[in-house]
# Entry
Amino acid sequence: MKNLIQIFRISFLVLAAFILCVCCRKGDEERFVTVVTKDDKAVAVEIVGMRLDDNEVSSRVKVQLIKTGERIPILGDFRIEERKIIFEPVVPFTRGLRYEVLLDDKLFLEMEVPVGDAAIPKLLAIYPSQDTLPENLLKMYFEFTEPMVESSSLSHIILLRSDGDTMQGTFLDLQPELWNSEGTVLTLWLDPGRIKRELIPNKELGTPLKANEKYTLHVNQSLKSKNGASLLKNYTKTFITTHRDEVLPDPSAWRINIPSAGGKQPLSIILPHALDYFLLKEGITIHEAKGGRVSGVIEINDEERVVKFIPNKSWSRGSFLLNVESRLEDLAGNNLNRPFDQDVSGKSVASENNLRGQQGFVKEFQIQ
Amino acid sequence: MKKIYIFLSLAVAGTIILASTNRHAGVREGFVNGAPEIKSISALTFGPDGILFIGDSKSATVFAVDTKDNQKVDKAEAVEVKQFDQKIAAALGTEVKNVSIQDLVVNPVSKKIYCAVQLNDGTAALLKVNGEKIESVNLKDVNFSQVALTNVPGEEDKDQRGRPIRPLAISDIGFYDGKVLVSGLSNQEFSSTFRSIPFPFTNKQDQSSLEIYHAAHKKYETYAPIRTFTASEINGKKYLIASFTCTPLVLFPLEDLKPGTHVKGRTIAEMGAGNSPLDMITMNKNGESVLLMSNSSRPIFKVKYKTIEEFQGSLTTPVEESFGTAGVHFVSLPVVNVLQLDKLDETKFVLLQRKPNGDLDLYTPGDWML
# Structure
């Protein structure tokens, strides 16, 4: 018996798929298995050295995980291509685990799917960026460099009080967790029921954060990327809390620095208070007064207190509109139309009309 | 004469086939063959005739997939699969720590159990339980239709202009009275939405979209996210029965859920803080309907629909005692750590329970449980 390692590319099977490794055993006839990867996932194996017909392969061949206890065949599909038997499991093989290929319930060979060199994920940012936050802070965003595992995040993220005690039940445990499409940004809500005054969770458990306290947020290295790599290191963010924020964001109070025509200078908006990072990025658009949306890039600076719009094309003279979506929120979840913690007694009709107000804020400005 | 019989037989057979085809075309209107682009499976529910609705949070879409699993079984067999998660992991060629079970539902026609799992690498898989065996459900070549869950009414236009649809964390999905019901959360703004989407899906996507709040006392409203819900008729009127974090049980008249409206729910029970409801089903005990609800930090609760019908009020004052309860009477069943719950038939249900030894077992409890 002799192990062989072969590495070569196959472009005919799957575009951008590579044969990563081969772990094999040689008998009377050369026999080996190659692992096919796509987007860094081990999506199939090719088995060479088995002479079978199409109609008998699925009944005679099994691929299963090598483990203690009961072993059962892995769910997947077989097919034969150019005398190779290809097995595609329902979900990709797990890196670092060992598998066996059986023919008529006898060991044909064993293989290991190598760990690979998955990129080490880093925590790029925690939003809000400020280190002074309102006691009724509603949510935090965690932005990573790689797509992360999207379950049990709360076992890896903890909040400590200044006395070192771990805060329990601070973040809302949601399933599914709130991730962006790419799996790189996690949203955690501080329990809204505890933030809202007089609600039962608020009365029984109190608000998650107290004013004038110091807290440290720990993001543990144990948090993993989808490719199985742990975070580069432990990350921490320390912040202090200040009074409750109950004031709605008011775009009419924003200071706008208007650029001149003919260049690509940014349009800068200076906010009196920090607002939600991702809602600022997506909720602010610039339009020509008598035309379509101006294409460009939004940059958020100065701990979410400055928004810069950089146009893709040079500014032309004329009238433009600054459009702010009503869903834009501050750090406490107050949006343009309604406070997060709203007293609806006596004004329920008006507030109901505004609960999901579609009316954002529009301001016209001239470029000279 | 013989020819006439043959002709008549063919005519009858043809009519039956045609009727059957039309019936199938009815619920399968707009279905196409192919591989639906399912990016995640957050929640499942069955509709008519073996059609499975798949709630995909990543692509903010509901898929309707024809499982072709529509052989009617009247009486369900009891189910018992010990170490269910271990078996799923082995069938998928991986370890338990890499697998999370997203949802588990029973096809009401065939009584077969379907299970959605998500792997740590992000791959979603749909599985079927056949006796003690785990089978995979083909999603590569199926007859299906889909509907995108737009974020707010009127946003469809923007999406057609190429704006990416934002993900929507789907917390639960149901099918009632010809409509797919979906509760979901944005990962950005604080908004909990509930949608009622007519099925078969139409090109117009004339879905309702609304925000819900319930008053836990007289003054403050909350946009609490719906964790789980069911729908049922109460005193002759169709209601959404929803539960939220810290376990208020709230009724919303389904007829009030119209596009762009905001419906105030009637809280009929406070079932205890420090807990999240996980699953809800309606069962039948000696001709009497009962609501069963599994919880993260409490046992299964049982509420008789009769007591819900009799409770005309709305809880508007806080519960004074910590972790106390109020409102309609309910009973705690002696079974804890139940993560998934679905009905097999009117009197039998299946549950997925984390046992004290750490095992995750799938089984049908005895009749005594109800």
Remarks:
- Confidence is low (pLDDT under 50) at residues 1-27, 344-357 of chain A.
- Helices of chain A lie at 54-60, 192-195, 200-205, 277-283, 348-355.
- The longest helix of chain A spans residues 348-355.
- The longest strand of chain A covers residues 41-48.
